[in-house]
Known about the structure:
2 copies of one chain form a homodimer. Chain A is α/β, with parallel strands linked by helices.
Amino acid sequence: MKPRITLKKIASEFGVSISTVSKALKGSHEISEEVRERIQAYADYYNYKPNNLALQLRNQKTSVIGVIIPEIVHHFFSTVIDGIEHYANQKGYNVMVCVSNESYEKEVLNFNVLTNGSVDGLIVSVARETQENQKFDHFKSLTKDEFPLVLFDRIIDEINCDKVVIDDVGGGYKAANHLMEVGAKRIALITTEDYVTVGSLRKQGYLKALKNKGITIDESLIYYIDDSKNLYQQIEKVINVPNPPDAILAVNEIYAANALIIAKERGLSIPNDIAIIGFTSGLISEFTSPPLTCVEQHGYLMGEQAAELLINRIENTAPKDFQKEVISTNLKIRKSTFIDG
Amino acid sequence: MKPRITLKKIASEFGVSISTVSKALKGSHEISEEVRERIQAYADYYNYKPNNLALQLRNQKTSVIGVIIPEIVHHFFSTVIDGIEHYANQKGYNVMVCVSNESYEKEVLNFNVLTNGSVDGLIVSVARETQENQKFDHFKSLTKDEFPLVLFDRIIDEINCDKVVIDDVGGGYKAANHLMEVGAKRIALITTEDYVTVGSLRKQGYLKALKNKGITIDESLIYYIDDSKNLYQQIEKVINVPNPPDAILAVNEIYAANALIIAKERGLSIPNDIAIIGFTSGLISEFTSPPLTCVEQHGYLMGEQAAELLINRIENTAPKDFQKEVISTNLKIRKSTFIDG
DNA sequence: CTGTTAGCGCGTTCAT
DNA sequence: ATGAACGCGCTAACAG
Lengths: 341, 341
């Protein structure tokens, strides 16, 4: 790659000082018109652009936001990034994306790289392994230095920073209520292990809805999926039982879509024999047969809000107390739970 | 945010020079053991880390790769990013992702930001608008300066740089052949406008396969979708005709899934009345009913290869001539085209 | 009008 | 064993 042109080179070319060139290119009125135009023409010709690194170092500001997410091949997370990108660009920031791959070690690595001056702030959704082992020291050392940080979706309560979450309890509640409204009596819940906060919160919503209607919780209807094992086999156990449930609430789209397929294989009619509802994050729900009713999560909005909180924090236009924004969900009713007369 | 600790501060704290501190923290044997240990302890306590910007400026190397893609909420592109991330991290690079949103203007903007010293090289998939208007000056000025650049998927033939593409012609060919093998006589093609290179290449494969079998091309069976208009209505016209085709080849997953739904609504049996095949990029194909046969694209591998080409170029370990890697596709046969006896 | 100086944070000769 | 000086590229306060 050819070396880029610098102020220094231009200056030596014209036999003037570096600062003269700098001023000329900024259109300063301190510089004579003639000199300014000649310098400008030369700079244009050689396509001069100020070196960003130098500017960032000088200004002590990168205008870059770091984002650390567990996975990128995931509709929900990519939607959030899209929202972050959009808001950030609008405010003159760029985005640097790193993937933790659900690994604690990789997350810490990403922390180290990004907080060494490369970014003005960080937006993070916590890796599963980190959640599981409750190792939060890297977060704590960040907040101790008041480094601008926003947690989203998978958050940590004990860390003091701005946060954005989905109303997961409300989503689970709405979903379970809807199932009861369409006549379900025995609603199975397919959820994650409890240390995954979002799964646990959605379960809370489910429990709350049932209790509200005076239904006693049947623990045998709650299934905890281990994502490292075979999904199909685990979900089969929900349906291939002597007395299958008449409704399923799954905490994500993949679980729901698998349940749907297994139910059909077993010859159950949906929603008549069994109604199914999921939390959506992708496009699958639209294209199953029948299409799946789901709780919509609004990841894009979440990303925008996270970016807004962070940039306000960076630019010191935020209130001193940390905010916690809650993104509400809504039900998208499709034919897996309800057939329009 | 609290100011970060610097060599300068440590130096003044100990009453020594900056370079002494620098050497001490690098474990240089020029520094007496005693001083070194005291400085090290102090630095550890205050969690000293060298400022990346300063290092980058000094070393004239950022170890960051810029990526510009048309969309991020797109399974194929996020898979590619994943591959780029993986390979890049392994080689000590980080990734900065920008989205052009299919807009020429945004693409140029991203170019300007990223090529100002922030990254060592760029991996790009061209925005639709740029392809449509054939405005490639920003690419040309980059290659003129020998800036490390890799194009992937949506490439530009006339730009001299390393490239990675899917074997789109081969994919279209395999797909059409498969349809003929399972007995299709009248294969409709649902494709994009021709300026979208990948659509046009897949069409070429389709044409080649048909000609190979001595079938005359029926232009009325080729449908060009305008993505800015209603998808469902456009695809309806393929199927809701007096004499519908007995097979459909769609150049992406969404087109295929829509075709499947419309065919079922019309009461056609799949694959008996009509076989359907798509190019996959997401998870939809697995969960439709019946599941969709598709051409698999291996985006992750594509990302890895793109990153490898770029890093070799950056580190001057690449051959002088530009490479063009072709990622081959394979058919994933499911029940939308073939029912296993 | 133009130039000098200093500083952002770091590493690296080259002196002492 | 330690430090001074320089350069990476840029801007801004200050001097002339």
